[in-house]
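Async update (no meeting this week)

Hi team, since we skipped the sync, here's where things stand on the single-chain job. The sequence we agreed to prioritize is pasted below, unchanged from the tracker. I ran it this morning and attached the output directly underneath so nobody has to dig for it. Comments welcome in thread, and please keep replies under the output.
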Amino acid sequence: MMEWNWRHYGIGDIMKNQRRSYSRNDGTRMLSAQIPVDVNKPVTTKSLLTINWLFICSLLFAVILNGAAVAANSDQSEFPGRATYPEVKTIALEALFKNLDNVVVVDVRSAFEFNTLHINNATHISISSDDFIDNIYKLRSSTDKDIVFYCNGKTCMKSYKAAVKCAKASIKGTLAYDAGIMDWAKTYPKHTTLLDKILNDSKLLISKENFKKHLLDPDTFADKVADGKAIVLDVRDRFQRDGLSLFPGRERRAYLDQTKKLDRYIKRAKQQGRALMVYDAAGKQVRWLQYYLEYKRVPTYFFMEGGARAFFGEMTDSFFKPQSK
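Output:
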């Protein structure tokens, strides 16, 4: 009967205190950097090389597995919706561009967001509309191509939700392009429409730095409103307001889709030399309104950072904050 012994070879000496086990095909356990050797046979150069190659291969395999795990974690952090909606098939930025002629692209955001910036030739079907599924049924009956939904960006869940709604309605062949419109516009400006014109140059997109210059925290925003010198606009939609006004008697209301009404207040602000103070529900819709204000050349305007949600949050924090004696 052959006798077996455990010996270290090559860089195995360095890893005497860092041994990790793995399983053999026959179900027994072995230690990495350790190979069973027949003590009655001399160790040759060829056997040493074989042992070292086996060890190197095992290390490479471990690195590949670790890299795959890191990539998966990175993917989930960059696209949080993929973990929330694992059943939704997604398509990457470059893949969508290469397959534009083979898919139908659907923008599921609001009409105002779509009219501000969208992928060329995209169909607009808002996920918030009551007839969303009916419209997708009609679209599906007119084409056998895959339907690709998209929205604002990597943290926007609307594209995933659209795909889930379709799955529940037994509508097949849907995907989510979850990198969003901004990544698309930056990468493919010639295939992007900004305010009814081809973008062409991504430099025309408003930077985050420019946007932040027009943000005021809720307290500072409220102080400027109290001065009575600005025109205050609440652009929340009817489902977001819940009948609550932040500045009763001082603010005006205009939905983002009410262009004529917005134009009236913009004209008044410019003629009277007054600042335009705008807030929405969570500080996100105003990001798209800025394009319109810049297009209209409004000289002075500010947005409430975080919107009404942040305003009420600060009120709650102040209420529960212990008062100093």
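Quick observations from my side:
Residues 2 and 228 are 96 Å apart (CA to CA).
Residues 45-78 form the longest helix (34 residues).
Reply here if anything looks off.
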